[in-house]
Amino acid sequence: MKTLVIIPTYNELQNLPLITSRVRAAAPEVDILVVDDNSPDGTGEAADKLAAEDSKIHVLHRAGKGGLCGAYVAGFRWGLEQDFDVLCEMDADGSHAPEELHRLLEQIALGADLVIGSRYVPGGKVVNWPKQRWVLSKGGNVYISVALGAGLKDMTAGYRAFRRQVLETVDLDELSNAGYIFQVDMAWRVVQEGFDVREVPITFTERAIGESKLDGSFVKDSLLEVTKWGIRHRKQQVTGLAREMRRLGAKGIQNWRKKHMI
């Protein structure tokens, strides 16, 4: 299947040649799309040079820093227009090992619609994270799993492979852009649409070069949003159950009346 790896960048000048070379070595058959948000450190220009030297590397320039969700949505749309069958998300900082991409693509080949590289399924792990951050991430994912009942261990994970049919079905314009919550939003929508979603273990390694774009506010914003979704989902479940009980009750009464000729 024709596969595209989307790598958003903002000030990743040092990391970009490293991650693209690793992808090309690990999966030479896939294409790479660098989505750069007008990085002031020259990442966009470096991406253009890489693309000029390698026909498998492409670049999409955006006008400014529009956030990770917007970068991925732009990348998805570009990939769909170019007729790619599988579209993948990957961080530029090396936290997602290109050498593990085959795990995601193998499950796609076996019929999965969305495959998530998970830190929290058996075999998954995190390297070089402080204990507090691990607890925050792990605890947040447990809360999200309970609130939404999606049956997934790592809904905030950003290492993913999608079949194009998934991205054509989900309304990309409606994704929440609050912090990193769009990853949860996307996975939740895919689950609700009835697609086959699977998780595979990965080793997530904290970046060695540059600074994280993540700030603490995303936790509060994300969990508040998830709480709203969970409450709405439970209300819909209760409403649906009540409707079904009324239907079954009415049907039972009709059957009883027919039986007793009333």
What does this structure look like?
The structure is a single chain. The chain is of the alpha/beta class and 262 residues long. It has one domain: Spore Coat Polysaccharide Biosynthesis Protein SpsA, Chain A (Alpha-Beta Complex). It has helices spanning 15-26, 43-53, 68-81, 101-109, 131-148, 164-169, 182-192, 217-259, and strands at residues 3-9, 31-36, 57-61, 86-89, 114-118, 125-127, 160-163, 197-201, 203-205. The strands form two sheets. It has a seven-stranded mixed β-sheet, sandwiched between helices. Strands 6-9 form a two-stranded parallel ribbon. Helix 1 links the parallel strand 1 and strand 2 (31-36). The radius of gyration is 21 Å and the shape is globular. The model has no long low-confidence stretch (mean pLDDT 86). Residues 5-169 form the Glycosyltransferase 2-like domain. Keywords: Glycosyltransferase, Transferase.
SSE arrangement:
Elements: E1 3-9, H1 15-26, E2 31-36, H2 43-53, E3 57-61, H3 68-81, E4 86-89, H4 101-109, E5 114-118, E6 125-127, H5 131-148, E7 160-163, H6 164-169, H7 182-192, E8 197-201, E9 203-205, H8 217-259
Parallel strand pairs: 1-2, 1-4, 2-3, 5-8, 6-9
Antiparallel strand pairs: 4-7, 5-7
Helix pairs in contact: 5-8
Entry keywords:
8 helices; alpha/beta; 9 strands; globular; single chain
CATH topology: Spore Coat Polysaccharide Biosynthesis Protein SpsA, Chain A
Give unreliable regions as ranges: none
Q: How would you state the average pLDDT, rounded? A: 86
Could you give the distance between the termini?
Answer: 63 Å
Rg from alpha-carbon coordinates: 21 Å
- Reported CATH architecture: Alpha-Beta Complex
Any idea of the CATH class? Alpha Beta
State the share of residues found in helices, binned by percent. 40-55%
User: What does the largest sheet look like?
Assistant: 7 strands, mixed
Strand content range: 15-25%
The CATH homologous superfamily corresponds to Spore Coat Polysaccharide Biosynthesis Protein SpsA, Chain A
Query: Within the largest sheet, what's the order of strands?
Result: 3-2-1-4-7-5-8
Number of discrete domains: 1
**Strand segment tally:** 9
Globally, the shape reads globular
Judged by helices, strands and strand pairing, the structural class is: alpha/beta
* SSE order, one letter for each helix or strand: EHEHEHEHEEHEHHEEH
In DSSP terms (H or I, runs of 4 or more residues), the helix count works out at: 8
